[in-house]
Fold this protein.
Amino acid sequence: MNLKQLASKEERFVSGHRLCPGCAAPIIVRLTLKAIKQAVVVATATGCLEVSSTIFPYTSWRVPWIHNAFENAAATISGVEACYRALKRQGKIRKEIKFVAFGGDGGTYDIGLQSLSGALERGHDFLYVCYDNEAYMNTGIQRSSATPMGAWTNTSQVGSAQLGKKEHMKDLTSIVAAHNIPYVAQATPANYLDLMRKVEKGVSIKGPAFINVLSPCPRGWRFPHNKTIKIAQLAVDTCFWPLYEVENGVYKINFDPGKNKKPIREWILSQGRYKHLWKNRGFIREIQEFVDRRWERLKQLSSMG
Amino acid sequence: MGVIKKAMTGADAAAEAMRQINPDVVAAYPITPQTPIMHRFAQFVAEGKVKTEFVTVESEHSAMSACVGAATAGGRVMTATSANGLALMFEIVYIAASNRLPIVMNVVNRALSGPINIHCDHSDSMACRDSGWIQLYSENAEEVYENNLIAIKLAERVNMPVMVCQDGFITSHSVESMRVLDDASVRRFIGQYKPKHYLLDVEHPITSGPFDFYDYYFEHKRQQIEAMTKVIPAFYEIVDELGKLMGKHYETVEEYYLADAEFVVVSLNSTAGTVKHTVDELRKQGKRVGALKIRLFRPFPREDIAKYLRGKKAVAVLDRAATFGHVAPLYHEIRSALYEFPDKPRVVSYIYGLGGRDVNLGHITKVFNELESGTAQEENYLGVRDEDEP
């Protein structure tokens, strides 16, 4: 499929929403919903996406959509899916319906982790898409457990005693993979065919599926709003955010830059949230080592087949 | 057929009602003393006696979240909890009511922490009295059963969630002789559930739970406030129908010897049984005493209450919960219901039974005696140690 064909596909999430220019979340949502051929019901956690797309009496959602609260998108969609199974068994519904939950990193890595873990373990037939913009952007850029080390946020400030966030980000994709669910993947909106293929796979497999999608945020990451896709691609090319999938426990890297792997310095220089580190070689080296270590580990896992 | 006599605990009575209601989804999490409801219901699921999807969630917060999802999806949905479980789901308890979802929840009343305590008081459900849920209280196992049937019909009639409360251990774990209806009668009584708008109607997509600013939020809240006025008329239509099946008469409150009573004790849940027994004993001595039991607490049936309490000499309101910094909740509301009437009785408060402290005939007799002698203070405790008592 090329971009032209993609653009002609039915829009299930339409314009008129109030997300920022350059926000990756609506791109991720549109691609996700375009990739699903069947009828779909969507749940969304409280966050940028929810508050900006459903300001009463308007909605950008052309599919049945539910928002309940911040920490419970997974539990909420599990209730919807359980009801579907009950009504289908009774013959009250015949149509095939798919179930998707969207949550930001706050609603997924942090406050919603228990709800997500429970829904995964219970084996509900749904796809959870985390749009990971690496901080609490909706409340005004506070650090989350997805915020990378060194990044400035309003609660991981830069000063003489501290240089942004002190800790590395949580590896949520691995945590989800440890639930031994049928399908787990990482994706970005830059690699849109890869993302759509993963969505298609996620909804076609019976049981829970999870896709962690890096969602560059011009406001929080401090970059011009026409650079969203470039920055997403840079995350892949530096192996900061590798494209990979875990299908029934088998790891597969979907894109290996090989010799063209770019240094993490390029990623750090692309965003103002790292501005205080631009000349800090020691810090950049530390982050490079972290990225390399994770990339090598991922290569080992995928070579195990 | 018709009415069948059984021996059941309050928890079994709730589970039996749930079996007959046969909900599409039940999502629940274990907590004492609610657990026997779910044990029994899980057995019904295992034996194929219900068509329910039983979602055994990882917390009460997720239990209520899944209930909201399932009810919005278009299903008939039930759950059960107690105390800290109810407190954990508190955020979603409000959302369920605000989204006007007809969820029915059995609340097996238990004292809220802290300190941690597993026994009965009403601090848990009283903490939810402003949540927008209808609240029914049950004196015994039979009322637990009846209230569940009333609740499902009422919830679907007025689009509001309903809590059915029963006393932890006292009612939930005690076997009593009680009556149930046969399955077919229950099925006819509750009917089919057909929601107007629901998520799984994919041909007609809805956006449920949108962001609601100052330009509409207030109107939505006003609708919710005013919808509550439809509950009591709907309640009477439903209990009249149930009354014909059970051969009983139901009201929002139950009066006991109030026609000529001068002194009255008002109570909720199982204590009403103890109060009625005390009235029987005192009546034998020629005392003009009576009782009022509140069955429907939300919305508060103030007209029915005023009708029964006006003109009495003195009324004691028993609260198994406290309000820190003000008078106890039921007392507060009873006094408020009587405020405008010139023939209002003297009304006094007794806080009793917190954390499962026993209340017996002697305690209730003492209350009546203090009402009669005029020695009751405005606010009293019942069955608690004084500071100088060991």
